[in-house]
Structure formats: C-alpha cells, structure tokens
Amino acid sequence: MLSCKELVENSSDYLDKRLSLNKGLEVRLHLTLCVNCRRFIKQMKVSQAVYRKMQQEQGDELDGLAQKLAQAHRSNQ
Ligand SMILES: [Zn+2]
C-alpha cells in the first residue's frame, strides 16, 4: 500500500493518466482509504484545470494578436 508521500509523488502522473495500470490501482486504493489524499488530489485537479484554462486563454489572445498584426500589415500595403 502506498504511503501518503508516495501518493503525492505520483499525483501529477496520476492526474495526467501516465501511471502504469498497477500504480494507478494503488493510487486509487489509497484514495479510497485516505481522506487527506482525496482532498489533496481534488485540489490538484482544480489547480490543474485553472492552469490549463489560463494557458488556453493566453493562446487565444496570441491568436487574436497575430490576426490583428496580419490585418494591420495588409492595410499598410
Ligand atoms: Zn494518504
């Protein structure tokens, strides 16, 4: 059975679904038994979602900027 420390070490791989089948099962087993780690994983998920959304929005902004630049370039000609 995993210790809490091991769970934390594996948590980002777990959330990215990069763990082997066995390791993933161990993590899930630990999570069913350990409320602290459940809470921890939940917070990790939330912060990952926020981080991804921020990256997405930055990407959209850059796309918009590139379009504006292209339009400005065209109207200069
Ligand atoms: Zn734990």
Number of domains: 1
Helix content: over 70%
Between the first and last Cα atoms, what is the distance in angstroms?
68 Å
Molecules bound to protein: zinc ion
- The helix tally amounts to 3
Question: What's the story with the biggest beta sheet?
Answer: none
Radius of gyration: 20 Å
What do these coordinates show?
The protein is an all-alpha fold. It has one domain (about 5-75). About 85% of the residues lie in helices and about 0% in strands. It has helices at about 5-15, 20-35, 35-75. α1 runs parallel beside α3 (about 35-75). The longest helix is centred in the C-terminal third of the chain and has 42 residues, at about 35-75. The protein is rod-shaped, with a radius of gyration of 20 Å. Zinc ion binds near residues 7 and 34. Zinc ion (ZN) binds near residues 36 and 37.
Question: How would you summarize the topology of this molecule?
Answer:
Layout: H1 4-15, H2 21-33, H3 35-76
The structure holds zinc ion (ZN).
